[in-house]
Amino acid sequence: MAEQEASGLQVLLRTLQSSSDRESILTILQLLGDLLSGGTDRRIRYMISKGGSEALLQTLVDTARTASPDYDILLPLFRLLAKVGLRGLGAVLGIGNTMVTKTDNGSAVMELTFKQRRAEDKKFGQKALELEALDVTLILARKNLCHSQNLLHCLWALRVFAASVTTAAMLGINGAMELLFKVITPYTQNRTRIIRAATEVLAALLKSKSNSRRAVNRGYVVGLLRLHQDWHSHDTANTYVLIRRGLLLCLKHIAALRSGREAFLAAQGMETLFSTTQNCLDDKSLEPVISIVLQILRQCYPKSPLPLVTASSAYAFPVPGSVTSDPPCVLTEEDFEDDGDEEVDKDSDSEDVKEEDDDLETDVNKLTSKPGPDRPEEELRQYEAMCLELSCSFEDLESKPGDDLSFEETQYANHHHIPTAASLKRHCLSKDQLSWGQEREDTGRTSLLSTVKMGRSSVHLASGKAPGMNPYQNAQSSGLGIDSSGSEIPDIQAFLNEDAWDIDAMSCPRMSASFSNSTRPRDATEVINKLLQTHPQHIPFHDPCLYMAKARRTRSVADFKMMAFPDLWGHRPPPSAQPMLERKCGIQRIKIFEDIRRLLQPSDIINKVVFSLDEPWPLQDTASDCLRFFSKFESGNLRKAIQVREFEYDLLVNADVNNTQHQQWFYFRVSGMRAAVPYRFNVINCEKPNSQFNYGMQPTLYSVKEALLGRPTWIRMGHEICYYKNHYHQSAAVTGGASGKCYYTLTFAVTFPHDEDVCYLAYHYPYTYSALMTHLDILEKSVNPKQVYFRQEVLCQTLGGNSCPLVTITAMPESKSADHVEQFRQRPYQVITARVHPGESNASWVMKGTLEFLVSSDPVARLLRENFIFKIIPMLNPDGVINGNHRCSLRGEDLNRQWLSPRAHLQPTIYHAKGLLYYLSSIGRSPVVFCDFHGHSQKKNVFLYGCSIKETLWQAESTVGTSTLVEDVSYRTLPKILDKLAPAFTMSSCSFLVEKSRASTARVVVWREMGVSRSYTMESSYCGCNQGPYQGLQFGTSELEEMGAMFCLGLLILELKSVSCSHHLLTRAATLLNAEEEVLDHYLQRCSSSSSSITSELDDEPACLEEIDYSTDSSSDQEGSFSELDRQIQECAFNKEEGDEEEEGPGQGRKASP
Ligand SMILES: [Zn+2]
């Protein structure tokens, strides 16, 4: 702004304050009014900076205090004050991101979200208070109770003053609420503008806790409820929705206090609001009213503890050392129970926003120094035995291995298996067992490179399938008892009568005795064999009999006797990827009203516990008509099931062993269902504040009948899905944390495909420890030992007594010649780990893809084997996986926070994984890449987290020492390659920041202590992709396995791009490249040409349209009413003839006509 203009403004303001000449004041006000109505917010902020607020407030006080105040001056003054005050507040709040959300009627609206920022005039309320403008405005309002226009202007000013909580409290003390109650009347068609403005001022005042307390004490809750009812019943045309909303906002703010909630309940508030809204839930014009009603009802729904005897896990296990349960990591509800009515009012704008950057490590010493080993050097010797490849002499190696072609093609046919989603190729165990393969055509060999070539455009989307459609529907139409080849299947029902798959029926007579004696062979192996004969199924790299043998050796805390059928029988990916579920409009609202109905209309509520780990087994009487639940099998973790209504069940999942929390993962069996009936399931003790279930994710379901009909498939299933905060609360005493905590409900409806089926439901595709052990054995048998060096050994024993496997994969030396053996030993290492977090089964599917690819006969896999030694620990937390944990080990601790100083007897798998890496480092053989596979519950796609000193310091805006720091940027190469290569991967979610809270994770410790610059965490979404060729699709196991294979290809290309890449490898790759029509070259070029610009994390989910957490004060009501207030003022300035009879229907804002 020009300096001249600036001084002009200052002169105007000075004149305004000093002048007593009516005409000059009027002229100046007119000028200021014109100036501000035409310009942007910048102009207003500029005026504030030049003392505009003070000048206007002072003029107000001076004018109002004269014997007969001049309203010709006061009215424009009030308008200006409201405008300036409004903008001052706008600056306080700061306008954050603008985003487009969809309203219930489908139209897109722009919604402003507010982010607290430094204010330009956050003291507006304070200034008004100091200059005594509050008092004079209140006095003027009292004087003008019968003069609509003057009163309206006073109310506008009060509305702006009240936006600061401290001034609101002061207004309350000075009797503002009593004044407003004189204005707010029962239903009338007169003075509705005034009434509306008054309800808005009152609502703003009630944001102050002292005002709310006063309102409770004076019995305003009853009065407000009566007013609401009166307006609601008379305003049948919904003309005065905003008045009704204002009244409800008053109640909502009062309900923030415990005494307010009590008063509300005592006044039958729940019943009143519930019944008044029941018949108008679908009325779009009432949206502003219903959303507030819902918030009040949720807020006032009496809190109760979870229906569990204890928050501690149902499973306890004696472990060495003292068990230290993590402090609750979830958000705590500050205003809960102990919100104490004595709490002092404080301005929210005075608090500094805590930046997430606080977590960044800014200590350059910590970032750059390399700590010494955490153990004596001699202890590292033990890991020599795990690296036999470094000492093996291959004396018995034939001189020309690998030329036994017939041998390879028969016995090791599965070499050609490439786990890719885009490829239709599926592995078969042998050629005479192809019967299952009719759904997916076998198109012969497909190399990974050719998959890449066509990959990004060849997604196997189901054609013509409606989103959310039950993939079993085709199956149903083909009729029960008919398999995919059309022949009848006998006795499915007989097999289903097996209540579960007994691990060792022979050794457990008590259990077998309880089964029917008719068709059931006594040995489980026999059952399986018979089933396999009648229902041939061949699933790549799976074998039910082997699984059973492995499961017998798996040791669980609860000593599981049963196997889950899907794990035993195996899973085959569905023929097509499933789209994300489209969220039904207002679904959360419907579910919450159903929840509230339990309290208010309990006539159909059953509330019967039908399954509980805390009760002696079996709890259920099989005769009753309810669903039967079970979870005592590997990775199962349902703790309790309560039948709420005929077709609705509340479910509670078990906390991690020796812990009181981490409920997220679930896996259980359900039976006794009716087909075609939607059953509602509510997992009521979830802990995370939001979930991908709100953004298109569905749980997974496996039907035993479907499996026996030839479709042994986990599919995404469930509709009417949402995730929201519920009314359960656990006190601090129970959780052992510093404060109590609240819970979230995941609700979904399932329509089962068959009557009397046995189905399994899970958070994500299960992958058990026994499945891994089975898989490793089959992999080992599948390789040609003359070509592939595949060794499986035990890294260590877990606390639970299970072996933690370590796999070594490389190529056999070309011959036993010294040169070849030397080349073999000198191959660089790659180290990959997974599943430290047991609930992240997606990580295991990615790992499965990696392992299968690495042993395959794909040319890329061959090159990788010939050039690297892969050390793989596919499951860092077997005990957690086995016992159905989500996050922790048997000691109840997060093993990915133990890497700094693991102890051999407390965290054996971490101790030895780190030891192995130490050993490699000590002999100068640190891995080229270290990567730990994880699952991510809040984001979509697949991405890497890495470590960079410079990016961390930049992000933290710390300049200390950055200029002299030299950092190799090669940590960015692999993610860039994967971004080009893997359909599910996206660079845009990758991050290379070193956080203090992650100092003890594998990624940071391997980077810092072993000096591995390419040390990563790879995160795969539980949900699916919102970019790339898989955009809009949920992940199936194929897509996850494909990611594992692509990761390997990424490692090869990384090597080809590195300076150390051998001539030999480049030559070999070039051959491959020609054979593959230069795809590789294509990608290499694209990778090298991509810029190194920093991509930031922009892919966080948008705020959910429906409030997940009702206790957080959404600023949207405030913002809405402010812009509305602004509109009114604007309108009034140009239209002086305003009467009181105008309509106030929503969305009917008049355009200001200049
Ligand atoms: Zn994880």
TrEMBL record:
Instruction: Write out the ranges of the annotated region (Disordered).
Output: 326-378, 1105-1124, 1131-1154
| GO process annotations (BP) | proteolysis
**Catalytic residues in the record:** 1019
Query: In what ranges is there compositional bias, type Polar residues?
Result: 1111-1121
Q: Which GO terms describe its molecular function?
A: metallocarboxypeptidase activity; tubulin binding; zinc ion binding
List, separated by semicolons, the cofactors it needs: Zn(2+)
Where does the protein principally reside? cytoplasm
All copies of domain Peptidase M14, residue ranges: 765-1055
- Keyword tags: Carboxypeptidase, Cytoplasm, Hydrolase, Metal-binding, Metalloprotease, Protease, Zinc
Bias (Acidic residues) ranges: 332-362
Q: Which SUPFAM superfamilies match?
A: ARM repeat, Zn-dependent exopeptidases
Stored Pfam families:
Pepdidase_M14_N (PF18027), Peptidase_M14 (PF00246), TPR_CCP1_N (PF25571)
* Annotated EC: 3.4.17.24
InterPro entries cross-referenced by the UniProt entry: ARM-like, ARM-type_fold, CBPC1/4, Cytosolic_carboxypeptidase, Pepdidase_M14_N, Peptidase_M14
Name used for this protein in its record: tubulin-glutamate carboxypeptidase
Source species: Equus caballus (Horse)
